[in-house]
Amino acid sequence: MSRLIQILIAAVIVMGGLQWLVPRVAGSLLAHQLGRLDHGPKPMVAVQAVPFWALFSGRFQDIGVNAQNADLKALNVQHIRMNWSNGKVSMGSLEKGKLLIEKPGRFRATVVVTGTALSQFLAKKGRIMHPKVTIAPSGVSMSGRIQLGGTTVPLDTKGSLVRSSNHQALIFHPTSIDGLNLPVLTDVQLFNLNTLHLPMPIGILRIRLESGDRLALAVGN
Q1: CA dist 4 to 9, 10, 14, 16, 17, Å?
Q2: What are the C-alpha distances in Å from 140 to residues 120, 169, 171?
Q3: Nearest to 43 by CA among 62, 60, 30
Q4: How would DSSP label each residue in 10-75?
Q5: Of 217, 213, 218, which Cα lies nearest the Cα of 141?
Q6: Distance CA 111, CA 37 (A)
Q7: Whole-structure pTM value
Q8: Torsions phi, psi of 36, nearest 5?
């Protein structure tokens, strides 16, 4: 075997190794940065960039993230599945622990939250005492106690979940209290994406109520 062929084979092996290694190093850096937003278990991050040296300028074809039991601003999220394609980040900023996005690309994520988690989140906010949120495909119910005219009164409502006009907030839209139709609807904000201070603007795309007391939110840009 000629020396030139040996060098070419060695180069292919090295390049193949770097193609395997470099995206994984970038994924580890991203997982560390996401840990600043998500205080739960470390998320799984997979980066796809061909050729691998595109990552040196921050470009990539696809980033996939799977996170279980994430903690976002005191809201426990059962599962997050994220896909981010054809974007660009600043690798220099990422190495310094900051996520700076130079090209947003296409971002989509599904966030699954339980009624129990929403109940605990509302309890921490303190607007409703002893809140209980129950989610079913047919609708959402919320019970607890609220201050009304200086008096604590029981609250038992049923309604739906909608997004705000700017697509940033998840809103509970009650249609009845104690089984009586409401003449005036009073919305309750459950969560606002703005509180996360995300590095790029995203909004709520779809809301799906599932069995098993679960809510699935589709978010993206």
Answers
A1: 9, 10, 15, 18, 20
A2: 16, 16, 11
A3: 30
A4: HHHHHHHHHHHHHHHHHHHHHHHHHTTT--SSPPEEEEE-SSGGGGGGTB-SEEEEEEEEEEETTE
A5: 213
A6: 14
A7: 0.77
A8: -75, -25
Type of residue found at 66? N
Query: Residue 131 and residue 165: Cα distance in Å, rounded?
Result: 25
Residue 185: is its pLDDT beyond 70? Answer: no
Whole-angstrom distance, CA of residue 96 vs CA of residue 99: 9
Amino acid at residue number 169: A
Q: Give me the count of residues in the chain.
A: 221
Q: How many CB atoms lie within 10 A of CB 131?
A: 22
**What is the mean pLDDT of the segment spanning 11-37?**
61
Reference 133, options 154, 110, 158, 153; nearest CA is 158
For 109-154, write each residue's pLDDT tens digit.
Answer: 999 999 999 999 888 887 788 889 999 999 999 888 877 666 777 7
The DSSP letter of residue 182 is P
Summarize pLDDT for 70-86 with one digit per residue, the tens.
Answer: 887 778 888 889 898 99
Cα Rg, the chain, nearest whole Å: 23
| Cα–Cα distance for residue pair 189/115, rounded to 1 Å | 15
